[in-house]
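Module 6 notes. Inverse folding takes a fixed backbone as the condition and produces residue identities as the prediction. Think of it as a translation problem where the source language is geometry and the target language is the twenty amino acids. Below is one complete input and output pair. Work through it position by position during the lab.
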């Protein structure tokens, strides 16, 4: 007998409250869903295992919260959700970017647009977003029960109720249940993936969860000395065993163990695949078929000045060296580069930083320009789920009705936010999924 058809031991008594809607998980998707259901005058209970809702929301965008991405045209926006766009169309036709901006603006939160369309609250605080959502729930009389750790859900088809069991053994009955337990990234925020097990026992197919949009750790020992340096307008080219792969442009942040920032997060999935895949695969080099060596080396070449070719960059460097001919090269380069990067780059180019500019030799200038155009960053691994911005995987999309967010297996259960298997880049696209799916679930339950 499947879990779906099991009759739970506990059946509601005459006195027992049956909620119209129980939302499990107080992240952005759950809060939006609960608020909207409450606005429609449903009796809503939100269960959150932490002592406070929205723990992950408060650390989004480095504490500033990248709420959405300014792409009001639905099709342009959907193009960012590779392979999921056909599923998401009906949902985004109801509530997309324009509705999100209006939703927050109507509640006193205006947003600023930053490069690549990223939208942040003008306060630059995720707390402002948190306040809007908690006020929204309050206005809809949503009962929020924190420290409520759900251990399982079943569906009683005779009573037509979803039965929610908490770890203390108590049970709660609901006509509809919105599952908003999130994925598995940053588990310390409460997103530990329990929801996936319950969904599997109800008969859903759950695609294996893994880290996605994750910082990259490097083997290079000099990295720890440049932690915190941010580079804008750079180019990153991925190589696997010296074979060129993909090129990315944008912004880079050095961390204590490697690299991060939006551009790096967006390339992390491909880097992960290159690290693990195709050992022993055949590939074409010239006209000959070769085999990829057993151990894959993935290197990222950092071009710090993609706007200049080697010749122009050499001229620029020469101008600095000539105008400051009596200075040491290590001091002159600080006007050219973030100061923390000067020593490691000089070492990589094998140029002595104590050399006076007038004594820098031609081959040393060439070496320096070559390094500035291609700093080799040797990848050791991707950081794990505890550092990932989102996790990949989740409920397979064909099992969800995106007009309502109802499960096609148990229609009394609604699925929102990170529990869904939707690939997306960094840039406000994850939270937009929470606003869209949360609003629609709250609107239809
Ligand atoms: C560091 C970081 C920065 C990010 N920055 C951005 C950004 O700027 N813009 C963007 O678009 N996206 C960002 N994201 C991604 C975004 O935060 C997530 O996509 C989003 O939080 C998912 O929301 P959710 O409501 O689906 O789940 P979650 O936010 O994961 O919330 C799930 C909630 O369910 C609760 N829960 C889980 N299991 C149970 C249980 N058994 N019982 C009761 N409660 C339970 C959890 O405690 C949690 O509060 C970031 C993620 C991280 C980690």
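Target side of the pair, the amino acids:
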């Amino acid at each position: 007998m499947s879990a779906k058809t099991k009759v739970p031991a506990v059946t509601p008594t005459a006195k027992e409250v049956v909620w119209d809607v129980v939302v499990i998980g107080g992240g952005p998707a759950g809060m939006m869903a609960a608020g909207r259901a409450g606005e429609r005058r449903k009796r809503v209970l939100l269960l959150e295992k932490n002592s406070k809702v929205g723990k992950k929301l408060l650390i989004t965008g480095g504490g500033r919260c990248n709420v959405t991405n300014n792409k009001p045209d639905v099709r342009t926006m959907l193009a960012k959700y590779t392979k999921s766009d056909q599923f998401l169309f009906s949902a985004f036709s109801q509530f997309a970017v324009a509705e999100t901006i209006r939703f927050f603006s109507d509640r006193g939160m205006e947003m600023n647009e930053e490069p690549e369309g990223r939208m942040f609250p003008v306060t630059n605080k995720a707390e402002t977003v948190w306040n809007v959502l908690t006020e929204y729930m309050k206005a809809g009389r949503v009962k929020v029960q924190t420290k409520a750790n759900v251990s399982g859900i079943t569906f009683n088809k005779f009573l037509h109720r979803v039965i929610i069991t908490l770890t203390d053994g108590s049970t709660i009955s609901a006509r509809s249940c919105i599952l908003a337990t999130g994925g598995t990234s940053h588990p310390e925020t409460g997103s530990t993936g329990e929801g996936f097990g319950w969904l599997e026992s109800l008969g859903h197919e759950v695609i294996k969860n893994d880290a996605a949009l994750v910082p990259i750790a490097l083997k290079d020992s000099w990295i720890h000395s440049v932690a915190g340096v941010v580079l804008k307008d750079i180019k990153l080219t991925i190589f696997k065993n010296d074979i060129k792969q993909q090129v990315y442009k944008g912004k880079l942040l050095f961390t204590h163990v490697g690299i991060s920032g939006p551009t790096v997060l967006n390339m992390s999935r491909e880097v992960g695949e290159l690290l693990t895949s195709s050992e022993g695969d055949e590939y074409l080099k010239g006209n000959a078929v070769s085999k990829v060596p057993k151990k894959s080396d993935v290197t990222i070449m950092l071009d710090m000045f993609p706007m200049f070719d080697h010749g122009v960059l050499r001229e620029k460097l020469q101008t600095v060296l000539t105008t400051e001919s009596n200075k040491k090269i290590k001091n002159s380069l600080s006007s050219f580069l973030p100061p923390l990067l000067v020593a490691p780059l000089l070492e990589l180019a094998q140029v002595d930083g104590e050399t006076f500019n007038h004594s820098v030799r031609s081959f040393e200038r060439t070496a320096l320009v070559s390094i500035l155009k291609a700093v080799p960053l040797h990848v050791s691994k991707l950081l794990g789920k505890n550092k990932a911005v989102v996790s990949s995987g989740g409920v397979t999309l064909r099992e969800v009705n995106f007009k309502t967010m109802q499960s096609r297996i148990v229609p009394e259960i609604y699925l929102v936010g990170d529990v869904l298997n939707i690939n997306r880049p960094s840039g406000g696209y994850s939270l937009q999924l929470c606003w869209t799916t949360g609003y629609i679930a709250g609107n239809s339950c």
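Reference fact for the lab report: The first helix runs from residue 28 to 39.
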